[in-house]
Amino acid sequence: MLYLASFLDQPVRGKTNEIIGRLEDLIVRVGEDLYPPITGLVIRDGRRNFFVPATQLESINGVTRLVSSTVNLRPFLRRDGEILLRKDVLDHQIIDISGRRIVRVNDVQVLRVERTYRLVGVDVSPQALLRRMGPRTLSHRIVGRRIIDWQEAQYLASEAPVRLKVSYDRLSELNPVDLARIVDALSYRESAEIVAALDDETAAEMLEEVSDARLSDLLEGMDVERAADILEEMSPGSAADALEDLDQDVAEEILANMEPEEAADVQELLAYEEGSAGRIMRTDFVRVRASVTVSDVLALLRAQPDVPDPLLAVYVVAKDAAPVEHPTGLSGDDRAVALRGIVRLRNLVIADPTTPLAEVMDHDTPTVRPEDRAEQAARIMAEYNLLAVPVLDDAERLIGIVTVDDALAELLPEIWHNRGARAFA
Domain boundaries in the chain? Predict the structure, then answer.
């Protein structure tokens, strides 16, 4: 293994051992190979930098040597798709995918594979920085490296001044909370770069976890249609909170570009005061009629392409005439109906499939009003050992639920936002 810091600024010798100049940088083409090949050298001769293709490189192990003593002294001009290991990677930030954090590159690892030198990893250890800062005669005595394989390192295209074809597919594998931590810690430009590369669903899941300030900046900075597509993938409560923090004209334009049904759900929540149960309630939950059996409900759930998440309970309503074929046992116009009870998921799973739902449901269910504060919903969930509390309107109709996650996120925003926070290098 070779390390960039060990041969930068060292003499570059020709075939007959004469000094051509000093090694200023190595050029790598990224985008297609898992381990990008070195495509050329930038050599410094006095104040002049010139390019030498990698085909003329014989060795950089111990001494940088070319296969010829004749070089073309044309000035170096960077091309699209190329990065410079010293200028664009060394001392820059990358994302350590397996470590789920941002790290600083203190050295770059290069390996010769057959006849081609390739970028294979980065050293993020403090020892690498000490080796660079200390005398070369003592650098070999500083032991310890922490190498991140280049396949696990997400390079940020905005770090380079040219267009790069960089894939961000691996970031979609991260937990949305971890990805949000990274996006919050990066610059706005780098954050926008990542969001632009994610699909709408992944971007929505991640943006629900970022700080309010970063979310507002990202939404206002992106195309209105893209912002609308992302908000459609968010929960209505999160989308409502996001829109309320935007400039009014921008928020109205985004709402106008959303699908009518999703926009209506968001506008309904915006009608409630911030911090109220109505603002943070979810409207995607499972409603079923009282006359069905446990097996009917399980069959309905299995048949759905998009089951509410989290699925904490099933809400039993007084609507005996609704068709059982509907996902919730209710037609779209009958969603706001009287609540008769709830069936906790545990009881639904362990009950005999033939049991009528009325026999396994809790009849005396505590509820809140949409105008009640989030504190009231959290207190009721704590007292009655609930993971969610139903929200009823003035006509005693079920219009939503408040989950414990949503209540805590409202009551303890900083603590909840920083749950599982990791230290960034």
Answer: 2-158, 168-271, 286-411
Nearest by Cα to 279 from 406, 96, 390, 419: 406
CATH superfamily, region 168-271: MgtE N-terminal domain-like (1.25.60.10)
Are 199 and 176 in contact by the 8 Å Cβ rule? The answer is no
Q: How many other CB atoms are found less than 10 A from the CB of residue 261?
A: 9
User: Residue-wise pLDDT tens for the chain (425 aa)?
Assistant: 889 988 899 999 998 999 999 999 999 988 778 899 999 999 998 888 899 999 999 988 778 999 888 888 777 787 888 899 999 999 999 999 999 999 999 999 999 988 899 999 999 998 888 888 766 555 555 667 899 999 999 998 876 666 677 788 889 889 999 999 999 999 999 999 999 999 999 999 999 999 989 999 999 999 999 999 999 999 888 899 899 889 999 999 999 999 999 999 899 899 998 889 998 898 888 888 888 899 999 998 888 888 887 888 999 988 543 433 344 444 344 455 788 899 998 899 999 999 998 899 988 889 999 999 988 999 999 898 888 999 999 888 899 999 988 888 777 654 445 544 443 33
Contacts of 185 by beta carbon, 8 Å cutoff, 6+ apart: 102, 424
Residue whose C-alpha is closest to residue 338's, from 399, 286, 398, 281:
398
- How far apart CA 206 and CA 193 sit, in angstroms, is 14
Domain 286-411 has what CATH class? alpha beta
19-29 and 116-123 beta bridge pairing: unpaired
**Sign of CA pseudo-dihedral 275, 277, 281, 283:** negative
Q: How many CA atoms lie within 13 A of 197 on its CB side?
A: 22
Q: Which of 124, 12, 130 is nearest to 71 (CA)?
A: 12
Give the architecture-level CATH label for domain 2-158: Roll (2.30)
Of the candidates 87, 137, 97, the one whose C-alpha atom is nearest the C-alpha of residue 121 is: 97
Number of H helices, E strands in the chain: 17, 19
User: What is the rounded distance in angstroms from the CA atom of residue 190 to the CA atom of residue 70?
Assistant: 42
pTM of the model: 0.77
CB neighbours (10 Å) of residue 77?
A: 8
Residues in the chain: 425
With CA atoms as reference, report the closest residue to 380 among 362, 367, 364, 392.
Answer: 367
